[in-house]
Amino acid sequence: MIAIDQLRRDPDTVRKALDSRGEPDSVAEILELDAAWRHDRTQADEIRNQRNQVNRDIGHARSSGQPPSPEVIEEMRSLGRKVDELEASAQKAEEQIHEMLLGLPNLPLSDVPVGADTDSNRIYRTEGAPTELGFEGLPHWDLAERLGIIDFQRGAKLSGSRFYTTIGAGARLERALISWMLDLHTSQHGYTELALPAVVRRDVMEGSGNLPKFADNLYHDEEDDLWLIPTAEVPITNLYRDEIIPPGQLPLYYVAQTPCFRREKAAAGRDTRGIKRVHQFNKVEMYQFVEPDSSADQLERLLGHAEEICRQLGFSWRVLELCTGDMGFAAAKTYDIEVWAAGCQEWLEVSSCSNCTDFQARRANIRYRPEQGGRPQFPHTLNGSGLALPRVIIAILENNQQPDGSVIIPEVLRPYTGFDRIHAP
RNA sequence: GGAGAGAUGGCUGAGUGGACGAAAGCACCGGUCUCGAAAACCGGAGUACGGGCAACUGUACCGUGGGUUCGAAUCCCACUCUCUCCGCCA
Question: Is the predicted pLDDT of residue A196 greater than 80, yes or no?
Fold first, then answer.
């Protein structure tokens, strides 16, 4: 959520930032409501003050045995009605303002490339180069089916299209990846591991920015009004909801593996083969609560943590700096990591690392106290996949496939898989 | 699913409808004392929003939302959550 203060103080900057994201300009409308709200609020407060004073007098008089006169009571009554009116009007304005602010995306940082679509994304760096297999490689869907480690048919039988089932070495490979990633981030990068609910309440989705705007992409249980998380970012953001984090605790680093559920309505018909885009997948997510001053540097570090996974798995990858029009709703700056997949010959997005500045903290009312006795402030939050499992599996299968149809397991995973190769049938 | 109890400041915990933003204790911060510390004593500490250049000041907040009243932490209604016991269950 954007601060109303900033809108009052510097509407033009906000306007410009929103425009760079292709957002319609609602700044003037919000400011108008805000002026009306302040007017009503001030008036109501003044009348209340008056009423409180008289009421105090009534109290004093009564305790010395003097009941108030009917005239005074009647006057107080009418003041009460007036306050009610002003309050109702102020509350209405407040609700409208809140709703409009909730609908606004975060403001991009000044160094983010401006542009409307993916064409304006900037390549930040590239590590390694697209590799050739030197023989006719298979895309992962053929490869995995032939190896008997993914069953698409039966996945769909259970839950419909875009669901799948992994079997044997495939299931083991995924579990190994999860364990290895969590171990790396906790032991080398300073993260604390979390195990989280995969289903959350409505207000939690609002805190992270997924609701009300993106209900379309979420699975929802009507009966209990519970929502399936599209990423661990959602519950982690809300861990400290409505809290003031005491001095000395930031930065907080968390990592969690959760299933992620996405309806992918907007992507209907796209990437329908294989496991590149599915309704349920596992993801290891890194998350940070940090002091505002440090968030820019922390984003670089976070990105490095995700890249370390790519490095140790032997991938070639590139980092994109997303342009204003391509960033997610809550992000002020985002890097995407794409790894090369030699079978389908394309770059696959395996991680998205974002600095959300104070956007989520405001929405979820998460604050921290910089020092003993200091005023509470909004921390900055960052999140990054480290990494999303299906596409990592795609890359491993496709890049490490051998002419005989087998797949070699990256060295770092072998202690976790217990095998060094998935053999062809 | 059934029965009961509860929700008050960072924590514990008082609070006959009127002096209650709220006793007391703990924790915390500052000071006195001390070579230093502990103890003791004195003092200070909530959050949000409005107004003001500021000192400051006003309002709201006792789980949430309504209601009664001139006035609600206190009375009434609904909801949410927590805890205990019973049942069921991985």
Answer: yes
